[in-house]
Amino acid sequence: MLVNATLRMDINESDPYHEYRTGVVDVSSINEHEWVDFTPPSVLTPYGYAKMITYPGADAIRVHFDELTLPWAGCVEIRDSSGAVEWSRSWNSKDEFDHNSSWVDGDTIYVYKVEKPTQSTPVWGRITFSIDRYQYRKLNHTNVSLSAGETRNITTEWDVSAGNNSMQVVTDAEEVVSEINESNNELSRALQVEACEAPTVLNITFTPQKPAAGSDVLINATITNFGNRTANFTVDLWAEKIEHHPFESPHGDEFPV
Questions:
Q1: Is 60 exposed, middle or buried (0-12, 13-18, 19+ CB in 10 A)?
Q2: Three-state SS for 254?
Q3: DSSP assignment string, 128-188
């Protein structure tokens, strides 16, 4: 998929220096995918056990905690694939009640429980957290040179995944260029991507509808592909039988005392 962004450098009339110059700016195109429901596995790392979240090819990942309990002298940390601590949340953090982490660069992150007791600040209670979903994004950086009043189109090619995507373009994210108006440096558009391959089971029928014990039954499964290209997959049919055998308690003279 090609994403096209139109950029323009305008001269603000309130500029006291009236400097008509060529500007070089970094443009970031960001593909931000919707939240993905996920329960991360536990892995053993050099820093202890952690919950690992990975998405190959991602430039950054963040997580959402559906449960987060932080006692005194305890915190939750997120490390990147190199082991560097990129985010932490403690009991007295100013954003203690925000259950979203910040964006952490890389395609793999590790989430840890960390207890740091001292003689004056023991750990009261236990650290608990549960991650129910994560979000990833991909970046594309381009350096652009624009003369005053010039407009240019920047085209980026993305391999987007199915679901809701937010395509975001940010100019001068590091604020290298001094501007009077910084509010027009970012624009987002929502993009709904349909699944290319979407096998779906529509119905299961039986012939005859009420068979007798021991008779043959024809089972028909109706399936379809709601995607827009050919999908190759297997179809498994399972026969499951549930029987109930109650246990009779002893009674009568069959079991004399």
A1: buried
A2: helix
A3: EEEEEEEEEEEEEEEEEEE-TT-EEEEEEE--PPSEEEEEEEEESTT--S--S--TTSEEE
Q: What is the pLDDT of residues 37-47, one digit of tens each?
A: 888 999 999 99
Instruction: Give the whole-angstrom CA distance, residue 207 versus residue 214.
Output: 14
Separation CA 149–CA 170 (nearest Å): 19
> Which one is predicted more confidently, 173 or 129?
129
Report residue 38 as tokens: 């996920």
Bridge partners, 113 (sequence order):
76
**3-class SS of residue 98:** coil
Q: Which tens digits make up the pLDDT trace of 62-115?
A: 999 998 888 777 889 999 999 999 999 887 777 667 789 999 999 999 999 987
pTM given for the model: 0.55
* Spatial separation of the C-alpha atoms in residues 24 and 45, rounded to whole Å: 43
- C-alpha 248/C-alpha 136 separation (Å) is 58
Residue ranges of alpha helices (H) inside the chain are: none
DSSP designation for 253:
G
Domains of the chain in sequence order:
2-33+137-193 (2.60.40.10), 36-134 (no CATH)
